[in-house]
Amino acid sequence: MKTRCAIIDDEELAIDILQNYIQKIDNLELVGKCKSAVEAYNLLQKTKVDLLFLDIQMPMLTGIEFLKNIANPPKVIFTTAFSEYAVEGFDLNAVDYLLKPISFDRFLKAVNKLQTNISAITTQISDAVTNYDDAFIYLKEDKIMVKLLLKDILYIESLKNYVKVKTISKDIITYKTISSMEEKLPSNKFLRIHRSYIVNIDKIEAFSTTEIKIGNIEIPIGRNFKIEVIKKLADETKM
Questions:
Q1: Dihedral angle computed from the Cα positions of residues 73, 76, 79 and 84, in that order, rounded to the nearest 10 degrees
Q2: Together in a domain, 140 and 216
Q3: What is the C-alpha R_g of the chain?
Q4: Residue ranges making up the domain that contains 201
Q5: Where does 9-126 show beta strands of DSSP type E?
Q6: Fewer Cβ neighbours under 10 Å: the N or C end of the chain?
Q7: Which residues have C-beta within 8 Å of that of residue 131, sequence separation ≥ 6?
Q8: For 92-124, b where at least 16 C-beta lie within 10 A, e where not — what string?
């Protein structure tokens, strides 16, 4: 499956260079070119995009401001002439940070880094299914990567562009959307029950048609999730 890419840059030459590079890579597909963050926002509303090549210094809204204000953002490789933004870029979980002028060799390294990240996620999901007791994920908190065993997670709560991961021993708050967390977790062990909550099925102590109880915490079941949640939990009780 090809990675669907979009370029967001206010410089025509920069767009042309990146387009040329993308066309050389078989598993990349260019689906959009935008000269501003506003154009990019409109593109994301109507087109599935897996990866943004995102400039930082743009009129009206910078690339960093744009990324901070969109829900469920695609993967991002920043492209800019200014190295001072690098730290902030990586704090936003960017795949890589390319300084202009961008060579094809450096572009290729960034794309390979993306593929490595995708493979790592796939491996984690596979491990979670086949060897759940040892399966884990890394989450970034305060500029460090924290390892969490999946079996220790109680539930995950959305805090807009952040999530709080409640575990047996601690809470982790990380810059991720709840939808991106849902994609990473094995569906046979974790269940989205509300637009703001994912729960560990193994940790559920009781449930009704309106809520789930984990320990002394009562978590609401969202109206739009109710049918699937109750069906899933009813199937679990038959096992």
A1: 80
A2: yes
A3: 20
A4: 134-238
A5: 28-34, 51-55, 75-80, 96-99
A6: C
A7: none
A8: bbbbbbbeeebeeeebeebbeebeeeeeeeeeb
**Which residue in the block uniquely carries the two structure tokens 């939808």?**
179
Q: What is the 3-state secondary structure (H, E, C) of 14-36?
A: HHHHHHHHHHCCCCEEEEEEECC
Helices 12-23 and 104-130: angle between axes, nearest 10 degrees:
60
Q: What Cα–Cα distance (Å) separates residue 63 from each residue in 30, 60, 92, 124?
A: 19, 10, 11, 30
Residue 140 neighbours by CB distance under 10 Å = 15
Position 36 scores a pLDDT of: 93
Segment 107-128 mean pLDDT: 62
| Structure confidence at residue 135 (pLDDT) | 82
- For residues 83 and 184, membership in a common domain is answered with no
| Residue 7 sits in the same domain as residue 121 | yes
Q: Full-prediction pTM beyond 0.85?
A: no
Taking alpha carbons only, the member of 180, 145, 187 closest to residue 161 is 180
Tokens matching residue 112: 């390979």
For residue 187, the domain's CATH number is 2.40.50.1020
Task: Collect all residues with Cβ–Cβ distance below 8 Å to 73 and sequence separation of at least 6.
Answer: 52, 67, 177
How many distinct structural domains can be found in the chain? 2
Rounded Cα gap, residues 178 and 198, in angstroms? 8
* SS3 of the chain: helix, strand, coil, percent, to 5: 40, 30, 30
